[in-house]
Amino acid sequence: MVLSVTIPVIAHANSDPTAPPAEWTITGSADVASQYRYRGISQSDNRPVIQGTITVTHESGFYGAAWASSAQLHNSPVNIGGSELDIYGGYTHALGHSGLVVDGGLFGYIYAGAPNLDFYEVYGSLAETLGPVTAKVGAAFAPPQKVFDYNLSSIARDNLYVYGEVSGDIPHSPVTLHTHLAHTGGGLDYATPYFDYIVGATAKWKRLSLDLSLVGTTVSHGDIARSGIATNASGGVDTLKLDAFYRQGKPVAVVSLSASF
Questions:
Q1: Where residue 8 falls among pLDDT bands split at 50, 70, 90?
Q2: Which ranges of the chain would DSSP assign to H, the alpha helix?
Q3: Strand-strand pairing, 159-169 and 100-110
């Protein structure tokens, strides 16, 4: 959801290097981005946003977090009411010495300015790191809930999001390359079931991270026209609406700067 990188910092860390790790850790970041894209679709009408996150993790693997983003308060094809707050928590754990890490939990999306859009998902993922490369596959499932009443292009009462990611550090450099490919199918379709993708690079310096990514979807003008969401009062296609809806998911470069604390 967020094009930013958070560097963990141990809360109340002991300066003694021989001391045991803290039972609890707190990580966080403050971010500015050229726009906010959620699963490839702009939530800020392709305009800049400020974002922030904080995560509390227990040494057992349980964690809880909150993430927030601004958005545009104007007549946008995708209008989330000016802000988004995500509350989520779960459990992550390495499977023995296999190198595999499992993660799963519950995710809630809260839109103060558009409460009819609030929804929740259950999620899970499996990741493995081999040398400098990490591969990850995961899924998020949104069961039947009220938000699906408001999607005019889908009659589905639930949604499944599946994805795969590969990332890796460039040796002897502060740069990490990352890729993401996913599919949305169900009540959260954007005119049609679609793929979204990210290809990018993140450069780190101390607690700062600068990310440049190409973000986009497979949603076409034709998909939007056939869905009926850009129809005018006479039943024809409104060209201005068509272009506006397409613009929210077209490929674009997204830049973000993150400062961790």
A1: very low
A2: 221-227, 239-247
A3: unpaired
